[in-house]
Every structure is written in C-alpha cells, then in structure tokens.
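testing teh design pipeline on a random one, pls ignore if ur not involved
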C-alpha cells in the first residue's frame, strides 16, 4: 500500500470510530430532506415573487442548509480537533511527509462528504418535487439531474474547503466564526445589495446556488449572476483549491 493510501486509511479510521460523527451526519441527511419538504410545502401554492421564472429544483434546495452546516463543521473538525487536542504531533510522527498527511485529510473529508451529500441531494430533490406535485419536475427533465449533482458537488466542495481553512487557522471557533457568515449570511445580506453584487456573486454560497438552479438568473432579478453552472463549478473548485493550497503552506511551516 502506498504512503498516501495508508495515511488515507488512517484518517478514515479516525472518522469511522467516532460514533457521534455518523449520528450527526445521518441526522443532517434526515433533517435536510425533511426541511426541503416543509419549505416546499410552504411554497407550493405561492411561488416566490421577484425571482424570475419558477425553478422547482432550486426552491426545493432552500432547506439544504442543515446538511451544509454539518458538513462544514465536520470538515473543520477533521483538522482543528487534532490541533486542539495536540494529537497532530502524533499524526505528524506517523506521517512525516506533511503534504501526504494533509492530502489524506482532504481526501477523507471528501469521501465522507460524498456519502452524506449524495443521499441528501437526491433525497431533498425527490421530497420537494413530490410536495410540489404538478409544479414539480422529474429527474429526467431538462437540467434537473445536472442540478441535483451540482447540489451534491457543492456540499462536497464546501466540506473540503472547510478542511483547508481549518488547516490555515487551526482553531475551531475562529474557522466557524469566519465560515458561517461567508457561507450562510451572504445570500440574505450582501447578495441583495446591488452596489456590491458584481463582487459578492463570486462568493461560494452564490456559486453554489447557481449549481442548483435549472433557470439562470440574469441581471434584473434578485441574486443574479454573470455565469452559469460551469462557471459556478469552476468558482467553487477555485475556492477549494485556494484553501487547500493555503492549508498546505501553513502546515509546512507549522512547528510541531
């Protein structure tokens, strides 16, 4: 087995042996699907006004926040918990090549995130579209499957992004204090300010919304963007790679 493979196996073992991790991740799936159904029920007979053409897939994903919060916290804890407890020294002793250790942590985060993101994305979709009834769409409709996969990709990338940020900051409280506003408050605040919309549209949560849309929102409607799904994926990937690069640089300089 390669060094990276052995390190990845070790990181997955750490995640697997913490029972509370799986309870919380499983609960996140259930709550995300349930919240998607409840929000869809409230919107079924009263589509949101001022948001352009009716987009049942995007509306069904308004309840995805719960799954995103849990995955972001998990991505942070994969790294910050070891710095807080001091076990990072043991990890570095077992895997002296820091790039390999960090790659293993990032891959472990991605692997766990996929296990959570896929059922969350598909479950929320089917729950919402069932509630919407005639106003809903099927998975075979135009852009629907792409949007569902986009929702899953958004969850996975944000989990890995959080892992990179945690490696840079090495503090759970500091990481969450920065990530929560960036990922969850922009849509309700900065995204609605026309004066700075040209910049805030490139923040992660806005790109994530575009990935989950089947109807593009151009200028003139709330939360408009100058890019489509392909551009949104590139933006999210760029944020994730930037965070991972920053995390690697900090880990290389970390004095254990």
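output:
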């Amino acid at each position: 087995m390669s060094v990276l493979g052995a390190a990845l196996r070790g990181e997955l073992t750490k995640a697997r042996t913490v029972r509370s991790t799986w309870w919380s991740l499983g609960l996140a799936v259930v709550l995300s699907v349930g919240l998607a159904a409840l929000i869809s029920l409230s919107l079924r007979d009263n589509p949101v006004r001022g948001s352009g053409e009716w987009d049942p897939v995007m509306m069904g994903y308004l309840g995805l926040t719960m799954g995103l919060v849990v995955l972001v916290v998990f991505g942070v804890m994969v790294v910050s918990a070891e710095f807080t407890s001091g076990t990072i020294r043991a990890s570095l002793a077992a895997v002296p090549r820091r790039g390999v250790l960090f790659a293993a942590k990032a891959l472990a985060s991605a692997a766990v995130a996929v296990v959570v993101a896929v059922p969350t994305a598909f479950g929320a979709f089917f729950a919402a579209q069932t509630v919407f009834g005639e106003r809903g769409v099927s998975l075979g409709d135009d852009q629907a499957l792409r949007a569902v996969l986009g929702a899953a990709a958004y969850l996975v990338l944000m989990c890995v992004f959080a892992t990179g940020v945690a490696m840079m900051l090495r503090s759970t409280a500091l990481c969450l204090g920065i990530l929560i506003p960036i990922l969850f408050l922009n849509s309700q605040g900065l995204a609605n300010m026309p004066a700075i919309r040209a910049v805030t549209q490139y923040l992660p949560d806005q790109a994530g919304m575009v990935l989950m849309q089947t109807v593009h929102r151009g200028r003139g409607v709330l939360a408009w963007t100058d890019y489509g799904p392909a551009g949104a994926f590139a933006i999210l990937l760029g944020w994730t790679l930037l965070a991972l690069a920053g995390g690697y640089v900090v880990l290389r300089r970390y004095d254990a």
